Known about the structure:
The protein is an alpha+beta fold. The protein is 26% helix and 32% strand. The chain is built from 2 helices and 11 strands; from the N terminus they run αβββββββββββα. Strands 1, 2, 3, 4, 6 and 9 form a 6-stranded mixed β-sheet that branches. It is elongated, with a radius of gyration of 26 Å. It binds dinuclear copper ion (CUA). Dinuclear copper ion binds at residues 82, 85, 111, 146, 148-150, 154, 157.
Amino acid sequence: xxxxxxxxxxxxxxxxxxxxxxxxxxxxxxxxxxxxxxxxxxxxxxxxxxxxxxxxxxxxxxxxxxxxxxxxxxxxxxxxxxxxxxxxxxxxxxxxxxxxxxxxxxxxxxxxxxxxxxxxxxxxxxxxxxxxxxxxxxxxxxxxxxxxxxxxxxxxxxxxxxxxxxxxxxxxxxxxxxxxxxxxx
Length: 185
Ligand code: CUA
């Protein structure tokens, strides 16, 4: 094999690899464009909306329906509303070791919350219902700060969460319509 034919083979191999790499890059760019346009054009699935002007007076987020509900099917649902600069209820009661579904929204600015060092963490956007299900591994009291800057009172916006042993929670929840640990309630 003389020098020039070896060069020729090397050049062909280089060109082949350049083509493969170019095709991979082009595919990735195409995927980015298609998914970007897709998600810009349609909202994520399961988005629920709520009218901020009427949520105090009708529907799921009226005051009497806020707090923790033990459903007939044994499902635990916590409903809460955020506003500048508090959560309602200010103290939540949930069981340990059982799935708990949160349903929450905001009436004014964008808020959010995280429960202690758990994965219970969401943003609250006016007009939308944020929902997630989580199981708290152990009982204990947790702090629940607002974690989206929402105005001058942001750092004072907190709630408390009491995670009770499941048996204690169930005996409390069975008698109650909606459970919370707000003092005097
Ligand atoms: Cu509400 Cu920060």
